[in-house]
Amino acid sequence: MINEIQNQYTPDYVSPPGETLLEVLEEWGMSQADLAERTGRPKKTINEIINGKAALTPETALQLERVLNIPASFWNNRERQYREALARQDEQERLKKQVAWLDQIPVKAMIKSEWIQYYQDKVEQLREVLNFFAVASPEQWEAIWCKTNVYFRKSQTFPSDPGAVASWLRRGEIEAAEIACASYDANKFREVLQKIRTLTVEPPDIFQPEVVRLCAKAGVAVVFVPQIPKARTSGATHWLKPDKALIQLSLRYKTNDHLWFAFFHEAGHILLHGKRDLFLEGTDVASVEDQQKEQEANRFAADILIPPAKLKQFLASVPKLSKANITHFGCEIGIAPGIIVGRLQHDEILPPSYCNDLKQKLEWCLEEQEN
Fold first, then answer.
1. Greatest CA separation for the chain
2. Angle at 146 between CA 142 and CA 147, to 5 degrees
3. What gap in Å lies between CA 197 and CA 138, rounded to an integer?
4. How many Å apart are CA 83 and CA 369, to the nearest integer?
5. What is the pTM of this model?
6. Which domains does the chain have, with CATH numbers?
7. For all residues of the chain together, what is the average pLDDT?
8. In the chain, count of helices (H) and strands (E)?
């Protein structure tokens, strides 16, 4: 949903509560010395309050209530509003110096995806982006989003842009927050995955809500978030809190074999690898341990989709692979034939150009997603 909050006028000048106090004194014909004597405050303190050099404390507010018959809440609110306005002015000056950071963030793509609202004013746009990431400044963004505790599958052929990846991940967090989940239960999640496996033969309008519903019962929020340019991610997994995990899918390759493999790969990370620090796929950034974790998640996904013994038996039983026997095998083990095609192509048993029409093409329907 687009943020409907519009720009709010912030005046360049804010008056301290002391100006209001001075007006009241002039109306009453009371001098600052008289007020100091009646309240028991030093003359210097009263003068500093009037000139905005000293804060009007709750204690002083109560004293003014007694002397001037104006509620202490009025003075306390006046002081709070003044200090907040000063802080906003300071922030405005600080943010003006930081707008260049927006170049690291795919702002146009986020606006197009309706993740954030467009502002013509650069400082307001910066505030909008910081609000999206739930951070106070670009420095905090660097500290949090460049050290995210997340496993994610990304392209090894093309480099991913950190700002794009962080934006995509944050959108997933926002959507996952709307999904009510039971506390995470590993045994229940394993049971759920077997039920979800049977959904691979269903169309998206059937499997998508059911995957979300079933996983939520086991403590895992599943969100489908379209990728944005330069993110180049197909899936991500991390923990929103100790009892709630997140699986995020992008539909990067737009076929059902990739989507389902990505889902079960991320599920494998949840079940096998617990709640650990940052993991990035790829030899350029991954340690030997991380690569091993990736291989384990790959094996988990491959084996749950197509049991190894069943695959071996199938390959031994057919003299030549064809669409007909692949489709029959899919019916036999209860999964979509396109997943089998993808597996056979990956294992170089089937050429990349063969049987691709058995794969189900998937497209985003954004209007339905918003409902």
1. 108
2. 115
3. 42
4. 42
5. 0.81
6. 17-96 (1.10.260.40), 99-144 (no CATH), 148-305 (no CATH), 308-370 (no CATH)
7. 86
8. 17, 5
Whole-angstrom distance, CA of residue 344 vs CA of residue 182: 37
The 10s digit of each residue's pLDDT in 136-175 is 999 999 888 776 555 555 555 445 688 888 899 899 999 9
Q: Give residue 353's pLDDT band: very low, low, confident or very high (50, 70, 90).
A: confident
CA distance 122 to 99: 6
φ/ψ bin of 2: left (φ > 0), alpha (ψ from -120 to 50), beta (otherwise): beta
- Residue 360: which residues within 8 A CB-CB, separation 6 or more? 203, 255, 256, 336, 338
Pairwise CA distance, residues 168 & 227, whole Å: 7
Cα–Cα distance measured from residue 71 to residue 80, given in angstroms and rounded to the nearest whole number: 15
Q: What is the pLDDT of residue 4?
A: 36
Higher pLDDT, 278 or 321: 321
